[in-house]
Amino acid sequence: MISATTTISTRNPFDLPELRHRLSRFVTLKDAISCALVAKAWTDEFASAIWFQVDFKVHPRFANLPLDIVDKHGHRIRIIKNAKTLSQVVLLAYANSIDQLRNLSIEIAASASQHARANKTISRNNTTLQDLHLFADSGFEGKKDTPTYYVSAPALTPSTSVTLPSLSKLKIEHLCLTLITLVKILQSSPLLSELRLYSTDVVGTSKSSFQHTGVNTFASTVESIFKKENLPTTPRM
Length: 237
What we know:
Layout: H1 17-24, H2 29-36, H3 40-51, E1 53-55, H4 67-73, E2 79-83, H5 86-94, E3 103-107, H6 112-124, E4 131-135, H7 153-156, E5 169-173, E6 176-178, H8 179-188, E7 194-198, E8 201-203, E9 217-220, H9 222-225
Helix pairs in contact: 1-3, 2-3, 5-6
């Protein structure tokens, strides 16, 4: 009598790219780094989790990474928080692969150099950004006479109408913007639903007005927006 034996081949479930991809969405940053070191096949699956969010407050040494490393993985970054120093802002500006941001919090007014480089990053991502926070250090009395404190309309508005911007939340703190800039931002952001202007002065007048029907949350001091000279042409929310 011949007995037949059946050999059942077993496979490690973690060899499945689909499973690793799903797991990468739920692990901590520390665990993602450990997983990426297991094997070369694991690196790509967990690299997206490692690079998905950059918070300079939590990881200030990120600004010291070589530009070529950041540029290699920049397309994976979706969220950047607390970009405050010139070195941090410069790194973001020159890593051209960082072009798919959804959420950005960045200081734009510390210097002319930082202002220009912050606007470069904003402009490169103005069609994908959904949540944008622009800010400066508080307490500067001369901001109305300082160009670096003014929000740039060209940086926030796409140069072509092929791709509509995704911006839904905009927060501006301790800065200035002209009424013309505010109108342009409203006109070019059809998905905008939340606008917050904290300690931000809206200056000048505009010959055009615009009614944005999608903004359902608007926060600001009355004095910043509804100055006497602005009342006739203040954008209607």
